Amino acid sequence: MGKHGAAHIVWDWNGTLFHDNEAIIGATNAAFAELGIEPLTLERYRALYCVPVPKFYERLIGRLPTDEEWEIMDEIFHRYYLEHRTACGLTEGVPTLLANWQSAGRSQSILSMYGHEELVPLVRGFGIEPHFMRVDGRTGPSGGSKAEHMVRHLGSLTGVEPARVVVIGDAADDAVAARHVGARAVLYTGGSHSRASLEVVGVPVVDTLEEAVAEAERLAA
């Protein structure tokens, strides 16, 4: 798939290809209720969200959760999310964007911090898996950064040169992970971060995935 050394996109999943904001906010508020934290609106969530996730909680309660609190909140979050993700779908235009990028002889893959065993059947269920060289979700504990996962992900892709890789995601951590491996990044405002919080990262920020792909093509040229 794709020509050796051709432009390659590493897509994020949650909040980027998969439009799951409502499920994420609901799951976050369900977890927060465990610590007596008031529910967040989408706007406040997007203004404050950061990775690693325990730091996000610290912004809201003034301290890091204890290990026990984190384990309980993490379990509540994932249980709620699993129940409510079924009402979510792909971001508008995704199948066409993926097909067009592939038909132009370029390659693409997914790297997500969503659990691998749950991610793969979810991607497969939307019928888009054939567009990707590889689909990788998180292995190991949740709550960390994507940077080291990105090292392993790119290392597993044959014929993909980091200098021609563009990471498209909705979080500042996507840009951090890209920088960590010598790739570029484009950040999308439709997910977990507000435009204001993304613009300080120093990479292109766009409002649609169509714009993101166009920017990726320019950056990888």
Automatic annotation (TrEMBL):
GO terms for molecular function: phosphoglycolate phosphatase activity. InterPro entries: HAD-like_hydrolase_sf, HAD-like_sf, HAD_sf, PGP-like_dom2. Gene3D superfamilies: HAD superfamily/HAD-like (3.40.50.1000), Putative phosphatase, domain 2 (1.10.150.240). GO terms for biological process: DNA repair. Keywords: Hydrolase. One of its GO terms (cellular component) is cytosol. Signal peptide: none annotated. PANTHER family: PHOSPHOGLYCOLATE PHOSPHATASE. This is HAD family hydrolase. It comes from Streptomyces spongiae.
